[in-house]
Specification:
alpha/beta, six-stranded parallel β-sheet
């Protein structure tokens, strides 16, 4: 996990703005001010990936020793011209040959299309460590939708890894609710 000083220093350098992607609308669920994650990745993607590498090692997912044996699943938000989760998955793929697939979600957090399903079904017969990644965790809507979708495919992720966890109490409940699931994040603090 990042130390507070490092996190806020990187956040200040990246800048802030309205949440432009994710679930809901500004009126009902989006935050007025969040870190500009695209700027974060423009300047610090290597550092973020390095931190991911070290935290994943703590739960026995070694991206160097087992290159290509980890499968990252993320909410695909390219349809909204926002790409933080996509960019993280691409960086992990580039540095460690990790596999990834984005699941496009509509405003109700239901999966759109079928291409992603074919990719997951094809790879499901192999022994992968499945990791759900997302830029933020707050109310759990996206995570719970992803778990429902993956459950229908008989996939049990080993880890949920939001970059920033705005609701650590809720993610502790996930570790009790889903057997074998670990929750990691680069930084966490409560926000309501």
């Amino acid at each position: 996990m990042l130390k507070s000083y490092d996190f806020w220093d990187l956040a200040d350098k990246a800048g802030y703005g309205e949440e432009i992607y994710g679930y809901g609308t500004k009126e009902n669920n989006r935050l007025d001010s969040v870190i500009n994650m695209n700027n974060w990745f423009d300047d610090y993607s290597g550092y973020i990936v390095y931190k991911y590498l070290n935290l994943l090692k703590s739960i026995k997912i070694d991206l160097i020793e087992n290159s290509g044996r980890t499968f990252f699943i993320f909410p695909d938000e390219r349809q909204k011209n926002a790409t933080p989760s996509n960019r993280l998955a691409e960086s992990l793929k580039y540095f460690f040959k990790a596999k990834s697939v984005g699941i496009p979600l509509d405003e109700k957090r239901e999966a759109i299309g079928e291409d992603w399903k074919k990719a997951i079904k094809h790879l499901h017969s192999y022994q992968y460590d499945y990791v759900i990644i997302d830029e933020f965790h707050r109310d759990g809507t996206t995570f719970e939708s992803m778990m429902k979708i993956l459950g229908e495919l008989d996939i049990s992720p080993k880890c949920f890894f939001p970059i920033i966890n705005f609701n650590p109490q809720k993610t502790k409940e996930y570790e009790k609710q889903y057997e074998g699931l670990h929750v990691l994040s680069l930084y966490e603090f409560n926000i309501k």
